[in-house]
């Protein structure tokens, strides 16, 4: 037998008939799942109306919301468009309004300036009144000073007539001592300045005080406080030879012998030496010239 | 029948009991015959047929329409049969008398006695095949399923079905050539 014959036989198998009663049994056993389609979709036909129609209703609500939004936006757009048209129509009047506004601003500025001028005028009047008051007071002060001088003169005459001693200033001695100390301080500053100058110039002192102006802090130190005949120079622009109270005894000298007197105060008899020191001479001491150089020596 | 069976199945899934009844009438004879040939006993075949339809009703949702309803139902029948076999002792081969009787009933008047005897002997040889090959022969030749449908019911590849059928034909051809083979 070949394969075709075998297959032909196999394709005609016996067909056993079902027993009686099997069909009825099978029909009776039919148990279909309850509302399978509804269960699959998750919504039963017996579900409430809103639950069954919820998807459609929600979509409809969304659509309605979108429509309302579009309508509202369209309304807004139309309103803005109308407003835009109105503004465009008013544009030709804009230039006129601008000119009018500038005129108003100028007017307001002019009014403001007028106010300022009136205020300044009031201030001027007030200042003039004050000046007048001050002038009156100055005249009064001058009168009082003249009267004071006259009274002092009368008092001095009365004292002289009565043969009494004139009144002595109790602080005069202290004042003189302070001025002497101030003089020594001045000479020490001068000595230091001259030494600084000589260090920069081959140990040679300058020919005058003015040459050491860069080393001196102020020209005030060149005037002795007790020298009533000279005035202090506050700065080098005002300085001149008339402001110098001290004598320069070793101009152009060579620094070496430290005992040589460099400067001297003719009022207090203070001396400054070449070593930069300054001292007050005692009544037994004096300055004398030996070989063209001034030195401290005892009085004979 | 195929298209109407699928439509009826979908209607039964929607809860249409009338459609389910029509499905039973259309398919129960074929399912029973298939199971009867496999099980070898009337009562067991009827029992497995009932279980097959019961499972079919409860798994209507799993029918997606990718295959025909017949193929889907045969798949259920096959698995139900396998479950039944695991619970029963191995099936004894069908007796020669049963196959002879069935062959005589199923033969056409034109067939002679020798042809009926040859068919009976061939069916008896099929029962000597191993379980997988025997099931493949039953589904493909006896039930008329295509190779793809047979493969889907058995849950194997089409190439496997072809291989099993080739094995079965080789076996049957070789045994048919032996005069004494039919006497076993």
3D architecture notes:
Chain A has helices at residues 3-10, 22-28, 36-41, 49-52, 54-90, 92-162, 172-199; strands spanning 247-248, 261-264, 270-273, 278-280, 285-290, 293-298. Chain A is of the alpha+beta class. Among the domains of chain A are: 98-164; 172-298, no CATH class. The mean pLDDT of chain A is 85. Chain A has seven helices and six strands; from the N terminus they run αααααααββββββ. In chain A, the strands form two sheets. Chain A has a four-stranded antiparallel sheet with strand order 1-2-3-4, covered by helices on one side. With 184 residues, chain B is mainly α. Chain B has two domains: 2-87, RNA polymerase sigma factor, region 2, helix turn helix motif (Rna Polymerase Sigma Factor, Chain: A, Orthogonal Bundle), CATH 1.10.1740.10; 96-183, Arc Repressor Mutant, subunit A (Orthogonal Bundle). Chain B is 73% helix and 0% strand. Chain B is built from nine helices and no strands. Chain B has helices spanning 2-13, 17-39, 42-58, 69-87, 96-106, 113-126, 131-142, 147-154, 158-176. The radius of gyration of chain B is 18 Å and the shape is globular. Chain B starts with a helix and ends in an 8-residue tail after the last helix. The mean pLDDT of chain B is 83. Classes of the chains: A alpha+beta (300), B mainly alpha (184). The interface between A and B is large, with 31 and 46 residues.
What is the arithmetic mean of pLDDT of chain B? 83
Q: Assign an overall shape of chain B.
A: globular
Strand-and-helix sequence of chain A, N→C? HHHHHHHEEEEEE
Proportion of residues in extended strands of chain A: 5-15%
| CATH fold descriptor of the largest domain in chain B | Arc Repressor Mutant, subunit A
Number of strands of chain B: 0
What's the CATH class of the largest domain in chain B, please? Mainly Alpha
What value does the Rg of chain A take, in angstroms? 62 Å
Portion of residues within helices of chain A: 40-55%
Q: What structural category arises from helix and sheet content of chain B?
A: mainly alpha
Low-confidence stretches of chain B: none
User: Describe the biggest sheet of chain A?
Assistant: 4 strands, antiparallel
């Amino acid at each position: 037998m070949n394969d075709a014959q075998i297959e032909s036989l196999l394709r005609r198998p016996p067909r056993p008939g079902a027993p009686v009663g099997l069909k009825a049994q099978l029909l009776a056993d039919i148990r279909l799942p309850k509302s399978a389609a509804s269960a699959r979709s998750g919504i039963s036909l017996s579900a409430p109306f809103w639950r069954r129609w919820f998807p459609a209703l929600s979509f409809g609500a969304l659509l309605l919301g979108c429509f309302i939004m579009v309508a509202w936006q369209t309304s807004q757009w139309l309103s803005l468009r109308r407003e835009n048209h109105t503004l465009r129509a008013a544009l030709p009047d804009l230039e006129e309004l601008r000119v009018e506004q500038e005129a108003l601003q100028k007017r307001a500025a002019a009014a403001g300036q007028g106010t300022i001028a009136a205020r300044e005028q009031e201030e001027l009047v007030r200042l003039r009144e004050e000046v007048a008051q001050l002038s009156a007071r100055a005249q009064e002060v001058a009168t009082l000073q003249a009267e004071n001088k006259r009274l002092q003169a009368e008092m001095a005459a009365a004292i002289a007539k009565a043969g009494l001693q004139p009144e002595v200033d109790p602080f005069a001695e202290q004042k003189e001592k302070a001025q002497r100390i101030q003089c020594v301080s001045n000479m020490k500053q001068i000595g230091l300045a001259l030494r600084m100058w000589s260090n920069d110039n081959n140990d040679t002192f300058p020919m005058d005080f003015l040459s050491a102006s860069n080393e001196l802090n102020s020209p005030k130190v060149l005037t002795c406080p007790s020298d009533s005949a000279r005035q202090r120079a506050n700065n080098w622009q005002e300085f001149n030879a008339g402001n110098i109270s001290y004598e320069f005894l070793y101009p152009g000298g060579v620094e070496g012998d430290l005992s040589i007197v460099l400067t001297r105060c003719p009022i207090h008899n203070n001396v400054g030496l070449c070593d930069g020191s300054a001292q007050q001479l005692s009544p037994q001491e004096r300055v004398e010239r030996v070989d063209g150089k001034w030195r401290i020596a005892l009085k004979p | 029948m195929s298209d109407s069976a699928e439509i009826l199945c979908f209607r039964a899934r929607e809860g249409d009991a009338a459609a389910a009844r029509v499905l039973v009438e259309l398919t129960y004879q074929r399912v029973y015959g298939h199971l009867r040939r496999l099980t070898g006993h009337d009562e067991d075949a009827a029992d497995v047929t009932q279980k097959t339809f019961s499972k079919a009703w409860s798994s209507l949702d799993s029918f997606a329409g990718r295959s025909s309803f017949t193929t889907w139902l045969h798949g259920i029948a096959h698995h139900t049969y396998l479950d039944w076999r695991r619970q029963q002792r191995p099936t004894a081969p069908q007796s020669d008398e049963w196959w002879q009787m069935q062959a005589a009933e199923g033969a056409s008047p034109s067939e002679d006695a020798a042809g009926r005897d040859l068919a009976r002997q061939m069916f008896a040889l099929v029962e000597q095949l191993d379980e997988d090959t025997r099931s493949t022969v039953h589904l493909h030749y006896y039930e008329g399923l295509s190779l793809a449908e047979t493969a889907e019911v058995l849950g194997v590849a089409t190439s496997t079905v072809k291989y099993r059928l080739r094995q079965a034909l080789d076996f049957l051809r070789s045994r048919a050539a032996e005069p004494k083979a039919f006497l076993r």
